[in-house]
Design brief:
110 residues, two-stranded antiparallel sheet
Length: 110
Amino acid sequence: MVISYARNFKSSRGFSSVDTYAHLIKGYTSEEKVLHQQMIVWRDQEYAHSDSLPNDIQVYSNGGYSRRIIRQLLEKDQLEMLKGMVNKIRYEIGNQINELKGGGLDTPAK
């Protein structure tokens, strides 16, 4: 879920700059903006490129080793917030489609 959400805000797969997608998240609260940025960091460092940060490696005397792998888990309240964030993006995309068709504004999804 983190990768699917955050990928769209990366220049390699999604928009080329923050300005390009800023209108999609303009309805975000300050708390939602913090989660938005955090999910992009989690995507880059823990999910999509988990080897981008040094990992703790435990080497055992028998020649074996283990590597600590961290995966940030979303809490229930974060998942609920993410659901609302995605609905806001869908609302903005719907408005853009309606504007291209010459129509009016949609009502936001709940």
